[in-house]
Amino acid sequence: MFLADKRIVHLLPKVLGKEFYKKHKQPMPVDLANPELQKEILRALRSTYMHFNYSDNCAVKIATTALNDRQAFENLITALPEIIKGVYGGADNIRKLHVKTADSTSLEIYNSEEAVEQENEEDEEDEDDDEF
After folding, report:
1. What whole-number distance in Å separates Cα of residue 20 and Cα of residue 65?
2. Roughly how many angstroms between the first and final C-alpha of the chain, as a whole number?
3. pLDDT value at residue 103
């Protein structure tokens, strides 16, 4: 975990370089001027952040394997409205949602109608290509 003063977080990409950010290690902003610094650090440690890049997907950590199934599910239910708020265009711009651990394959939990239609079209194109 990498904590940084919230006043300088915006300067860090240039200082740390793109190799640091390629590993998806984002500094977590902390208000070091806060008189209750311990609470501020604990808040940051219990938080998760959603960082957008220039690709068409985004990963958000919502639980750890230390949680039981019920706790992980509750975290998912709590996180979804916030994730939707963070996506430009809201729920209409979310095509798929997957759940996975660091060592597992992803399990699809949502697939928009538009994504299903596009997958069907791609399957039809693949079938047409196989005929030749």
Report:
1. 25
2. 53
3. 84
Number of helices and strands in the chain (H, E): 5, 4
Per-residue pLDDT band at 53 (split at 50, 70, 90): low
Tokens of 117: 């239609």
Smallest Cα–Cα separation from 59: which of 27, 92, 114, 96? 96
79 DSSP assignment: H
* Most confident stretch, 8-12, 17-21, 112-116: 8-12
Q: How far apart (Å, rounded) are the C-alpha atoms in residues 86 and 64?
A: 21
Q: Give the mean pLDDT of 25-51.
A: 84
